[in-house]
């Protein structure tokens, strides 16, 4: 077995995992790279050696959150609706646990293509298992994602719905009973 050559210079004080964990403790709607550097106790320039900019930071956070919310089991023709309900509740718990994350995701922005691509593919697969066309599965993905994310974003941004605020369990039940999308009149 060949011995490893020691690396010259100081050992790395940072990792992408540390950076993401630091970001998860900040309000993601307002966090700056300087905030993350201060939280980690490193220089602003040291952080940029690991993460190029705020968008890349939010991409890393998105990857971690999507990994946490995706159920490990695959949906089936018998379980697709329960699978989507489980996913929505995981979104509820994880998105609201990270300050500003639901509000960030609910606002127009560029999504991490890798992380949200995985989420998209799994949700579309669930709707296909419900027996709808590829087009209706895509439409259902948009309705499901938009509905859940907008509800969570509104909740996190503190929109005052008054004493009759829609409960997530009721909202989700109505949403899922209406999905998958069908062509009007069919």
TrEMBL record:
The keyword Metal-binding does not apply. Signal peptide: none annotated. GO terms for molecular function: DNA-binding transcription factor activity; transcription cis-regulatory region binding. Keywords: DNA-binding, Transcription, Transcription regulation. Residues 30-59 form the HTH tetR-type domain. PANTHER family: HTH-TYPE TRANSCRIPTIONAL REGULATOR BETI, HTH-TYPE TRANSCRIPTIONAL REGULATOR RUTR. This is HTH tetR-type domain-containing protein. It comes from Streptomyces aurantiacus.
């Amino acid at each position: 077995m060949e011995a490893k050559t020691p690396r010259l210079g100081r050992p790395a004080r940072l990792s992408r995992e540390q950076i993401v964990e630091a970001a998860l403790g900040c309000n993601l709607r307002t966090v700056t790279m300087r905030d993350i550097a201060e939280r980690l106790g490193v220089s602003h320039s040291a952080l940029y050696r690991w993460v190029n900019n705020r968008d890349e930071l939010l991409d890393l956070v998105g990857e971690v959150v999507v990994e946490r919310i995706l159920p490990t089991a695959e949906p089936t023709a018998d379980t697709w609706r329960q699978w989507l309900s489980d996913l929505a509740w995981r979104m509820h718990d994880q998105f609201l646990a990270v300050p500003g994350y639901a509000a960030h995701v609910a606002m127009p922005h560029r999504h991490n293509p890798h992380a949200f691509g995985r989420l998209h593919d799994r949700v579309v697969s669930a709707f296909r298992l419900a027996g709808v066309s590829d087009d209706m599965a895509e439409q259902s993905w948009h309705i499901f994602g938009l509905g859940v994310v907008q509800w969570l974003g509104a909740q996190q941004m503190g929109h005052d719905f008054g004493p009759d605020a829609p409960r997530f369990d009721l909202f989700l039940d109505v949403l899922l009973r209406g999905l998958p999308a069908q062509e009007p009149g069919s």
